[in-house]
Amino acid sequence: MATSEPKSVESEEEQPDTQVAANADEYMKHPLQNKWALWYFKNDKSKTWTENLRLISRFDTVEDFWALYNHIQQPSKLGYGCDYCLFKDGIKPMWEDVGNKLGGRWLMTLSKQQRHNDLDRFWMETLLCLVGETFDEASEDVCGAVVNVRPKGDKIAVWTSNCQNRDAIMTIGQLYKERLNIPSKAMCYQSHDDTSSKSGSTTKNMYSV
Ligand code: MGP
After folding, report:
1. What is the pTM of this model?
2. Residue nearest to atom 10 of ligand 1 (CA)
3. C-alpha of 58 from chain center
4. Is 146 near ligand 1, meaning CB less than 6 Å away?
5. Separation of 94 CA from ligand 1 center, angstroms?
């Protein structure tokens, strides 16, 4: 036979609203403004560039972002030829995607020593700039970001949607530079059109900060 009194329904109903709200907050994840997709590129020479690009996961909450971030290797631990790409869901991390076609990238090339000193920190700051929509209204123009791990020097880039949107591009470049606390002229902006059709290392710099 049950010995304890059944809980009064009335006492539950009398819970103050603030208590209910606090409890709900404990269980609710915190939504991001956009949904994001993380991609991984592994350079397997027997496959095409597109075949080497794999979607890892999508997320749209702060909690799921950190769960993914904490689960995967830092860029400095990846092999040469590997990339991570974080893009708004619906935009593939390639020049050909309609979201990138007219765009370009703020490109930062790191020295070999910076792999140990700066690479992982810069990449984490870049991710936070994106998911936190750091660039004010210009965040609309952001498509994603890429980190390339390369023997000649690693690269980090923020891709934007239209290389003619000078104001948005300069706002993004300026705020990004301040956030990473890097010296002037350490980043330049190149259109994907130029990058994809370049011969040698002659890509034109459209803007710099
Ligand atoms: P990369 O990986 O961006 O730079 O491009 P990496 O390896 O430092 O080489 P570098 O040329 O900048 O010195 C390497 C190659 O990958 C390109 O030359 C293309 O063949 C291919 N590639 C890179 N991207 C970003 C794309 C893309 O968006 N679409 C296609 N089709 N190929 C790409």
Report:
1. 0.89
2. 201
3. 11
4. no
5. 9
Q: Which long-range contacts (CB under 8 A, 24 or more apart) does 40-45 make?
A: 40/82, 40/83, 40/84, 40/85, 41/82, 41/83, 41/84, 41/85, 42/79, 42/81, 42/82, 43/80, 43/81, 43/82
Instruction: Determine whether the shortest distance from the Cβ of 150 to ligand 1 is under 6 A.
Output: yes
Q: What is the pLDDT of residues 95-147, one digit of tens each?
A: 999 999 999 999 999 999 999 999 999 999 999 999 999 999 999 999 999 99
pLDDT digits (tens, 9 = 90+) for 150-189: 999 999 999 999 999 999 999 999 999 999 999 888 999 9
Q: 27: Cβ below 6 Å to ligand 1?
A: no
